[in-house]
Write a structure and sequence with these properties.
With 114 residues, the chain is mainly beta. It has no helices and ten strands. The strands form three sheets. The protein has a six-stranded antiparallel β-barrel. Strands 2-3 form a two-stranded antiparallel ribbon. It is globular.
Length: 114
């Protein structure tokens, strides 16, 4: 694996300053930081229809080492180093986690966050 990514759990509860009305979100927890590989199953974007409109969304598979901690659906992935500069700093959300016995890697179904 030639890329490097960081995977974080969504931020926990934050705090509200009742005097100013400012919301301070909780800090995200890093679950994994290390080698990864990013693949796009197809070059076509999926159209998502809602409320009479549509938007395109890109799905990707992020592959990490088999011995990584459990990654929950909803975690965030950011590619921090890659030979493909278009992948750098692209925010992705984990929407599916592949599990099975005798894993040689861990595959995460992700969608680009727009």
């Amino acid at each position: 694996m030639t890329d490097t990514c960081t995977i974080t759990a969504p931020a926990g509860s934050g705090s509200l300053n009742t005097t100013t009305g400012d919301w301070t979100p909780g800090a995200a927890t890093t679950l994994y930081s290390g080698p990864c590989r990013v693949r796009m199953p197809s070059v076509l974007e999926m159209d998502e229809l809602f409320g009479g409109g549509s938007r395109a969304k890109q799905r990707m598979t992020v592959i990490i080492t088999y011995d990584a901690v459990d990654i929950p659906v909803g975690a965030r992935v950011v590619v921090t180093d890659s030979t493909d500069l278009q992948l750098l700093d692209r925010p992705l959300a984990v929407v599916a986690v592949r599990s099975r016995s005798n894993l040689v890697d861990r595959r995460l179904g992700c969608e680009e966050i727009s």
